[in-house]
């Protein structure tokens, strides 16, 4: 199977490396050509044109930052018939955006699957991502070998739009849990309470979430320099979440407040830092 991989950034590069490790024949494209050099050394065939990559691949995976980035790539494609090529969109987009892509590819005789993932770089390296599948029919078995290259669990959610909706629901918990933890931890520190005592109470309560300990060292060391997922992408996802929740007639007042906090962090230059830099955003200007 010849796989084309579009987008070799923070998440895309290690995912592509895992496909190579699992002996897939891999074609790669990135808008910044230099970002493909390491993959080329490991056996990937690099293309300077996404259009040419598609012509040479049976399956094409998109791992890009947002819908605009995906649309910019596919707007340069020169095809009238995709001849049953399979396109897998793995970035975090909204259900509406994935449905638009499905309609586009299927109108030209292509097949489309959305497959957003839960996890970041460490989970890719450990093959512990959770991959959600949304498609017109259950494609889990057909795609298992691909996704098992970097996933511990593969879940068919339903038709296109359902997998991205589940991903946004999970991402809402990530930003909200980390926000409320950051606020409480800020208060504990300002009150000069021993953080170890605070964490011991929290760990032994029903309020605890593992993400608290996962990011605690970043908070205490004030070190956010090695992002697995940058703060600016968290804000992008939060805006998708707000739009989707409002379309579903769910009150989003809390989320708008979180968005303002993240926007302040972007203005203060934290956008390319790890998303746990939101802890700094709770300091009043």
Characterise the protein shown here:
- It is a single chain.
- With 285 residues, this protein is of the alpha/beta class.
- The chain has 2 domains: 2-158, NAD(P)-binding Rossmann-like Domain (Rossmann fold); 165-282, N-(1-d-carboxylethyl)-l-norvaline Dehydrogenase, domain 2.
- It contains 12 helices and 9 strands.
- The chain has helices at residues 12-21, 37-41, 50-55, 67-74, 95-107, 121-125, 140-147, 162-190, 195-203, 210-221, 231-247, 253-267; strands at 2-6, 25-29, 45-46, 59-62, 86-89, 111-114, 117-118, 129-134, 151-158.
- The strands form 2 sheets. Strands 3-2-1-4-5-6 form a 6-stranded parallel sheet, sandwiched between helices.
- Strand 5, helix 5 (95-107) and strand 6 (111-114) form a beta-alpha-beta unit.
- Helix 8 (162-190) crosses helix 11 (231-247).
- The protein is globular.
- The model has no long low-confidence stretch (mean pLDDT 96).
Q: What's this, in brief?
A:
Helices cover 48% and strands 14% of the residues. The protein has helices spanning 12-21, 37-41, 50-55, 67-74, 95-107, 121-125, 140-147, 162-190, 195-203, 210-221, 231-247, 253-267; strands at residues 2-6, 25-29, 45-46, 59-62, 86-89, 111-114, 117-118, 129-134, 151-158. The model has no long low-confidence stretch (mean pLDDT 96).
